[in-house]
Amino acid sequence: MSGQSHLPQGTSRVGFIALIAAIMALNALAIDIMLPAFPQIRDSLGIDDPNHTQFVLTTYFAGFGIGQLLFGPISDRFGRRAPLFWGLGLYVICAFLAPLSPDFTVLLVLRVLQGFGAASTRIVAMAIVRDTHSGRAMAEVMSLVFMVFMIVPIIAPAIGQGLVLLGPWPLIFIVMAVLGFCVGLWAHFKLPETLAIEARRQLRFSVIVEGFGIVLSNRTAMMYGLAPGVMFGAMFAFIGVVQPIYTEIYDLGLLFPLAFAAAAGFMAVSSLLNARIVRIFGIRRLSHSALFGFILISAFWGLWSLTGTIPLIPFILLVSSVMFMFGMIANNFNSLAMEPLGQVAGTASSVFGFLQTVLGAFMGAGIGQLYNGTTTPIAAGFVVLGLLALGMVLIAEKGKLFGVSEEYANA
Predict the structure, then answer these.
(1) If you ran DSSP here, which 8-state letter would residue 7 be given?
(2) Residues 295, 235, 48, CA angle at the centre, nearest 5°?
(3) What is the homologous superfamily of the domain 14-193+204-396 according to CATH?
(4) Residue-wise pLDDT tens digits, 275-325
């Protein structure tokens, strides 16, 4: 048996995937569209250290991580729709207020709150997919969602670049707010409630603690839930320094979004491929193989960078190859983490979302602050974090890789 799919009556598969992807894409939009505006923000708000501009991302990640701890239990109690709309409302309001920021501190506070609201998008999207799918069917749908979702990182930097050419950096936040409102309107009319009333958990302290206990006590789920957080640290680090890498090291100027889009495009391709072959080869075989590929390619990148600046085209190919591997890791690991926790899907999504975001944000920020005008620290960080993720997988699988466990044979 390869898993099941049971969409709400009247909901098309294509429409479902597109809407879930759009909801999740608002989070990516709030991150990647900001990259071309870093120089403008730095000059406008008087930021002395160029690396401090990365805090526009770090603070957003912090709010995003913390918010997920609350939205999970709330979505298990009140259903999926209401928490989503409250979160989207906060996301849109903070985006509208950001252009009024008198200084960098106020902007960072609004980014924390915006990330907090955006947490609902991740929690609700993951919970709805788990409500309606299981096993390899869930991994397939998550891969398709992620493929559509990855269109945003491909085009967002280019959109941001266009916006900063048309006007000052606040224009980016206005566009962000408008798109958030439009997605919310789409969800209002097209997203059905997927959590039955009889399946909802009480919002009492003891029940919440019990739900967290169910998640935290499952070794396999926890290790597969933590591993993507470590991997996201590598991605967050690269996102934080991608603008200076392409504009300072490679002198691409306004063309840097194209180089960034190439790498993100490979991640989207890997998600599509994963969706097509995961039922054939299984989640574990694909994700474990991709993790080894991620580590080896990153190590090769790091060793080459020690000899001097890697030429542009080989560098883009190396980064794109790493992103391709990452695309087969994150979705499959999250599916393996969520599979045994269907009865507390919202809470599980909140725990994993919080841990992944906080781990990723702080690890990524730490690696990003090591940027020294070369790509060596980033490559080294990729290797270290890849090895940490491998250690977590070994714990989850009791030292066995590439196999199919008895407990989750459908995975």
Answers:
(1) P
(2) 130
(3) MFS general substrate transporter like domains (1.20.1250.20)
(4) 777 777 878 888 899 999 999 999 999 999 999 999 999 999 999 899 889
